[in-house]
Amino acid sequence: MMITFDAVPDRDRLAAALRSSLPPMLVVQVPAAVLALVGAFGLLTGARAWPLTLLAVGALAYWLVPELLLRRVVRHCWRLYGRRTTWQIDATGVRRITT
């Protein structure tokens, strides 16, 4: 008995798998959060120009940079995994037949 099936690539599923398997973006988010906190503290002390800038840059970096990095990783991995793949299971084992 032989079973053959196709695996159709899905970019959204690849992004979800990479998001769950990549290490947390703490390398980016911790310094961004520190910038935002320094900016918020500066606003509390009465200054206006530099704290608003730090707060805005920190907030943008905290939310935007991890998404941009993930998008770049997905684009790079899609070149390798974005092909339709056919799998064949029979008495000899499992074989991958890339089409």
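the 2nd protein, sequnce then structure:
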Amino acid sequence: MAHEQPDEVSEESLKKGLEGIFSAILGDESRKAREALSAHENNPEVLEATEALKVLDYRKFRSSLLRRHEQLTRALVEKVLGDNHHLFFLLTKQDFVGRHIQNLFVDIEGSSCCADKERTVMRALIRHYHKGARIEFNYDAEYTYMLPQVVLRDQESIIGYFDSLYRLYYGNPKPYLAEMLKIAQQAQAARAAAIDAG
């Protein structure tokens, strides 16, 4: 009995299939967003924001909708977790912080497990700012794939990098640039040590 070869899938049909999947996912998210807007479109804040957008008044848009949302978010975080500027920033700007951390791991350590490492650092920062927990990782554990290997390995470097991101977000790039220089030097030293050891 001859072994049948499966039909080969052309690159074009594979591309179309993937585009269809992503379109369906994005379309569903877009539909959910439109439904959420419909449920609130008569809200005075949404009406005010709509008018601001029509005349491209970015300041009024921010004050009518975004600022009020931020106030609600701040009140919720303070009620549940207490008043802590760094914790509030970390929770509300987690995309900004997380992307920087993950991209740092990709650039220095490679893409392998970079999302796991980013989550490890983010969770450590949250525990630190919420409960005052010392940031320490157990490199002797059975599984260490989620631990930073070259950069952001200790509390001092993690807090230093996070603080530089905090300052960068609010318009002061100097601490961030200084921190990145330290990280680049640390990465270069680690590469040189690996070459010497190899």
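Residues 45-82 form one domain. The chain has two domains: 45-82, 89-197.
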